[in-house]
Amino acid sequence: MSDELLAGADLGSEVYDERSIEVLEGLEGVRKRPAMYIGSTDSHGLHHLVYEVVDNSVDEAMAGHCKNINVTLLSDGSVEVSDDGRGIPVKPHPVHKVPAVELAMTRLHAGGKFKKDAYKVSGGLHGVGVSVVNALSTWLEVRVQRDGHIHHQRYERGRPVTPVTVKGDIPSDRTGTTVTFLPDPTIFSMVEFNFEVLSHRLRELAFLNRGIRMSIQREGEGGQREEFHYEGGIVSFISYIDRSRKPLHQPPIYLQGEKDNICIEAAMEWTDGYNENIFSYVNNISTTEGGTHLSGLKAALTRTFNDHSRSANLLKKEVQLQGEDLREGLTCVLSVKVPEPQFEGQTKTKLGNSEVKGIVENLINEKLREYLEEHPREAEKILSKAVQALQAREAARKARELTRRKGLLDGAGLPGKLADCQSKDPTISELYIVEGDSAGGSAKQGRDRGYQAILPLRGKILNVEKSRLDKVLGNTEIRALIMALGAGIGDEFDLSCLRYHKIILMTDADVDGAHIRTLLLTFFYRFMAELITDGKLFIAQPPLYRVKKAKQEYYCFTDRRKDELVKELSPGAIVQRYKGLGEMNPGQLWETTMDPQSRTLLKVTMEDAIAADEVFTVLMGDEVQPRKEFIEAHAKEVTELDI
Ligand code: 0RA
Predict the structure, then answer these.
(1) Residue 633 falls within a domain, yes or no?
(2) Closest protein CA for atom 7 of ligand 1
(3) What digits encode the pLDDT tens for the residues 221-279?
(4) Is the CB of 88 under 6 A from ligand 1?
(5) 325 is annotated as an active-site residue
(6) Same domain (yes/no): 53, 103
(7) Which of 210, 415, 632, 640 could be 233's S-S partner, Cβ–Cβ 3.0 to 4.6 Å?
(8) What's the pLDDT tens digit per position in 474-503?
(9) Domain housing 221
(10) DSSP string, 581-618
(11) Ligand 1 contacts CB of residue 86 (under 6 A)
(12) Whose CA is nearest to atom 4 of ligand 1?
């Protein structure tokens, strides 16, 4: 909620009548082009509505006025977000003569224009405000507790259908805001909220904003419930991320400071692993494409460790550690709060503000130097790990040269198992990565060979969490994959050489399929992340069931649809469950999963890939307890998949 809106600072002298017409036109515009405001009208856009509302409560909490934020999924499909903040003001606005809360709920404001001194710490990826949520909801109700009363107003498709009404009296010290809304099914392609998706985001917000208590529950008996509250903030976040890893030192390093209105917090921990896990945030938004804050942090790390190793005589003079050596095994959370962030990049998750780099770099230089001087044992452990990484990098370079000579990295050769397409135009070419030879066979026969290539993978690919690049390059399945794509790997990955602009993972709908998909996602995340940020990686959606009655055939992609259909058709409906892709004949596979006219492809996001990577760390990690917890938490899904 923008302060400017509530204070009415920039509203001039327009009268309410004129403004109210603009308001309605504005909300109509949101309904006509929702994607312009919330990115998309699929599952992402749907969940974004909740984030938008929660962000307002987080702002209230960050301003020091609220401790608890609760999200409830109600059984009618609506969602409720409530907080114990000051409550949105309800007094009539001096200029508009309508309650401030009504203005906040109905007036579209230019996103991101905030007062400079009191910057918004959250604000949502698109920062569009709660009026957009209102416009995209069949109905929305707001309940404000303040000044000894409960105030209430209801809207439908963004328009008020009641005045702000006092519904009852309360003790005058009780305050808070509750927003409940039902997403409009004529706008969204799906309207079911996913508990896991929402709780993942709430946990993240609780880590990023120390002290806030966040909870989420599903209404009804025995419904799920989660609560997140971390007094340790991002230090607790690091311990959570590394729960299945072995740290080289403890506690994590915590650095913090502020300059020119920019607040910087970083927590770091080195583990015995080989991967780099840096999660960066700007105003609580995950910057998966990085940006100036991340560049500043990386520059400071490299500089400070090299300087320290010289001044403390820990390394020979001629040894120069590279950034990647120092970041091997590093888990880091960087959270900055910037008054006027500029987001750039394919997915608008890259910070562009140039002034931020120097500020972050100087602060981390200074604070990290102090830390290293005061913690010589930790400094030595981290440096010795970096030296090992440097030696391994040399070995990997040799392995890479060897494989390059064999034509693996420069696109000279193609793997024997690849059934390539006829087209040489990457923009229209697709590569299906298919699990197993039998499904590969069906896919080869069913495809349109003009532009669809098939690469069958046999068995499991390597778990890249526990291997350095040299070992990864030794894996046959991975080599075939790299060769088929033709764009290299790691630092040398070059998107412009990519032979297909759609890479589609097609695996069975069972545990093994999920396992292989997770491995592949982890691999792409670790070694070809650009494929994901550039939106070129997809997951195919094969049907789970075929329902047949007399001569009519239907394919169902969810259990719910199957149950509905069986109800509609019965009696006489025959249900076949597809255990694997191989059970479909080539014609069926084409029709349901490969034909661009009828198939559904899910585009893989960075969040998906990070989640896959996390699953792997937990399942394959050294620590037993997190693995046990993970399996227990997901046991239900696993048995459902397993039948
Ligand atoms: C501006 C001023 C005041 C409260 C809020 C914003 C506010 C907005 C939201 C949105 C969700 N929860 C919220 N809680 C508070 C109050 C100013 C005052 O009381 O003096």
Answers:
(1) no
(2) 88
(3) 888 999 999 999 999 999 999 999 999 999 999 999 999 999 999 999 999 999 999 99
(4) yes
(5) no
(6) yes
(7) 210
(8) 888 898 999 999 999 888 899 999 999 999
(9) 29-226
(10) GGGS-HHHHIIIII-TTT--EEEP-HHHHHHHHHHHHH
(11) yes
(12) 88
